[in-house]
Specification:
- The protein has about 240 residues and is of the alpha/beta class.
- The chain folds into two domains: about 130 residues, 3-Layer(aba) Sandwich (Aspartate Aminotransferase, domain 2); about 90 residues, Aspartate Aminotransferase, domain 1 (Alpha-Beta Complex).
- Helix content is about 35%, strand content about 15%.
- The strands form two sheets. A four-stranded mixed sheet has the order 1-2-3-4. A four-stranded antiparallel sheet has the order 5-6-8-7, with helices on one face.
- A hairpin with a 3-residue loop joins strand 7 and strand 8.
- The chain is globular.
- The relative contact order is 0.12.
- The model has no long low-confidence stretch (mean pLDDT about 95).
């Protein structure tokens, strides 16, 4: 997913040894998603995040986690990196769900020694820190926590993934996901993910294709079990036709 920002060297996802080999005296940070959402819901091998945390600590570079898509309950934990022990970042990036579907809000969170590196006037945005955005973000966080949406998402995600894997469609190569973030990878030579998404849209189901072969499901965290059953029926029909 691009465009890529300047000053970054790209390495393969899921390989902590490659990270360690890529570090130079000029390396200041490692930026990574706990789950690569836009790349097709790619989940790293077990222990990956803990390993990169260790590598970053040993080399005294910052671990920056992009949890814009995976954070705030989406994967069945409040933050996706919490699925692994000892993987807390130095810098955390959140957004999307932080706006509660009402207002575009994002945030960069880091301790004072990191944030104080920015001097007055070096970095800013026109609407950064405005009171409406702050109020919306606060209310969204209260709903996520008070209504225990992370725990709810974990249970519903297990149900959704179990039902999807039972479908056993010949057009599906792999189903992967965590919580209510799911990627359905289609076999080469079958219909494209865009075609499947268009069919689902005709039936009132909004999904997204990524990299031509993956249909991504990211339903609202407040979805009901009966709505998941209806979603699965529409998906099964779209994969059959």
């Amino acid at each position: 997913f691009g465009p890529y920002g300047p000053g970054f060297n790209l390495i393969d996802f899921g390989d902590p040894d490659q990270l360690e080999a890529a570090i130079t005296p000029n390396t200041v940070a490692f930026l990574v998603e706990p789950i690569q959402a836009e790349a097709g819901v790619r989940i790293p091998p077990p222990g990956y995040l803990s390993a990169v945390r260790r590598v970053c600590s040993e080399h005294e570079i910052l671990l920056v986690l992009d949890e814009i898509q995976t954070g705030l309950g989406r994967t069945g934990k409040f933050l996706a990196h919490e699925h692994e022990p000892d993987s807390a970042p130095d810098v955390l990036i959140v957004g999307k769900a932080l706006g509660g579907g009402v207002y575009p809000v994002s945030a960069v969170l880091a301790p004072t020694p990191v944030m104080s590196l920015f001097q007055s006037g070096e970095h800013g945005s026109t609407f950064g820190g405005n009171p409406l955005a702050a109020a919306v973000g606060k209310a969204a966080l209260e709903v996520i926590c008070d209504e225990r949406l992370s725990e709810r998402t974990a249970a519903l995600g297990d149900y959704l993934l179990d039902r999807l894997r039972r479908m056993r469609s010949p057009r599906v190569a792999e189903i992967r996901g965590r919580g209510l973030l799911v990627g359905i990878e289609l076999r080469p030579g079958t219909r494209s993910a865009r075609e499947i998404c268009d069919r689902l849209l005709e039936h009132g189901v909004l999904t997204k294709d990524t990299h031509e072969r993956v249909v991504r499901l990211a339903p609202p965290l407040i979805i009901e079990k009966e709505e998941i059953d209806w979603l699965l029926a529409q998906l099964e029909e779209a994969l059959t036709i």
